[in-house]
Amino acid sequence: MTIGGRVENGKVKKDVLVRVKRGGEVIGEGKITHLKVGQQDMKEVPEGTECGMRFEGKLKIEISDVLEAYSVESKFRKIVFEK
Description:
The chain is built from no helices and eight strands. It has 83 residues and is mainly beta.
């Protein structure tokens, strides 16, 4: 689904995960796979910029829905036990 909107806070990056909120409640999740500003493809879009996005998910985005972008990071730590 191709949608248009404005980045209100922070920035949105290509291939980021999103939560979809409607009426303040999370109704589903998806992923932003493409970003465009005008005719130009973008890797990230800064705050305050209007852009087009390609949303992939199981639900249909409606007018006034809020998309919250997030990323999941894994950190591995090595623990050494000494005698």
